[in-house]
Write a structure and sequence with these properties.
With about 120 residues, the chain is mostly beta strands. The protein has one domain: Immunoglobulin-like. Helix content is about 10%, strand content about 60%. The chain has 2 helices and 8 strands. The strands form 2 sheets. A 4-stranded mixed β-sheet has the order 5-2-1-7, with no helix packed on it. The chain has a 4-stranded mixed β-sheet with strand order 4-3-6-8. The longest helix is centred in the N-terminal third of the chain and has 7 residues. The protein is elongated, with a radius of gyration of 15 Å. About 15% of the residues are buried.
């Protein structure tokens, strides 16, 4: 295995896996994979609608992930219709505690939801 592919495997990743309406809230579902484990991960998360307006600015607490583990986290964002959203912006990492400090240096944020872009 090359050093490049090995480094990619070791990268901690947050992936937007789904967006579904839950009453008056938009439920965002994420997967978090952390090859070296995380004790805590909390991000500044901004939701922007199709008109370019900021609809929500909040802290998403992804909690802990065991070494080599995968966790699913859901966040209900009130008073937002999922269809109005265009972008999930990870504005910053408020807190990241890992067994290996390098895990937090190379966080990757991606989206599997065609209608929603993810940026950092």
């Amino acid at each position: 295995m090359s050093a490049t592919s090995s480094a990619a495997i070791e990268r901690t990743a947050v992936d937007l896996n789904g967006a579904a309406q839950n009453g008056a809230a938009c439920r965002l579902t994420f997967t978090v994979s952390a090859p070296v484990g995380l004790a805590a991960l909390e991000t500044q998360t901004v939701l922007i609608d199709k008109a370019g307006s900021v609809r929500s600015f909040s802290l998403f607490d992804f909690g802990s992930v065991p070494v080599g583990g995968l966790r699913v986290r859901q966040f209900d964002v009130p008073h937002i219709t999922c269809g109005e959203l265009e972008l999930v912006l990870f504005n910053g990492v408020e807190r990241c505690v890992a067994a290996d400090g390098a895990a937090c240096a190379g966080l990757a944020f991606t989206s599997r939801v065609d209608e929603l872009e993810v940026q950092q």
